[in-house]
Amino acid sequence: MIVKIATGVIGNSYALIADGIESASDILVSLITWLGFGLSLRPADEGHPFGHGRIESLAGIFSGMALLGAAALIAYQSIHEILTPHHSPSWFTLPVLLLVVVIKEVLARKISVLSEQSDSRALEGDAWHHRSDAMTSGAVAVGLTLALLGGPKYAAADDWGALVACAIIVFNGGRIIARSVHENIDGKVDESVDEDIRRYAEDVEGICAIEKCRVRKSGVFYFAEVHVQVDPHCTVTVGHEIAHEFEEYVTDKMPKLKDLVIHIEPYNRMVEGRVRGM
Length: 278
Fold this sequence. Notes:
mainly alpha; disordered C terminus
């Protein structure tokens, strides 16, 4: 942030200054993400029996909104600079921009890997903050190269470059907000989670079929409600044991499955399948 703003002021590149301001917002967003992610991992308590996972998706919404705000600020200042005659940026601002692109893309890739591993919207938003910085700097670098090669008539090329990058930032900011809101209102999760639960049910002796399986996501964890069909002639005790065995088996196979509520039902002979182990 300091290097970009200082270089932008000395080198007469407002696009680089705006890029530095956007980096300042990255610092704030990363701090909020770190705080929100940490709070979301706190265990359930009396006031929050389902845990604090929703804080993580709220942090994701904040990250997305911060991206939109940064894009709006950069767009406003870029348009102002395009309409205001000014000198071409200095040549030494170009290597600074290229260095920024490399550093920010490396950061974005590292955090993106973590966001995929944890399926975290907050970390995804933070990764895109770094990537948007890299994209803005890259677009500005292209515009700056045109300005240096084309002379005074291309003096605003780096501002146009920053403006183009804003559209990409807005798109990704909106996407992150939409996904975070989807999670926060218990939207449908990835079908692979449902499929894994049903697949593991086939390994548990005594389970005839899975009638329903509803999964919701809270932070980086999942909560599921499953209707398990067993032999209608088995005792309550046997059905209870099957449910416990299924719960232990699935939660062991799926560490992110924080809680599994199992409803035992009599097996419907009209449904395809057979009773195993009965």
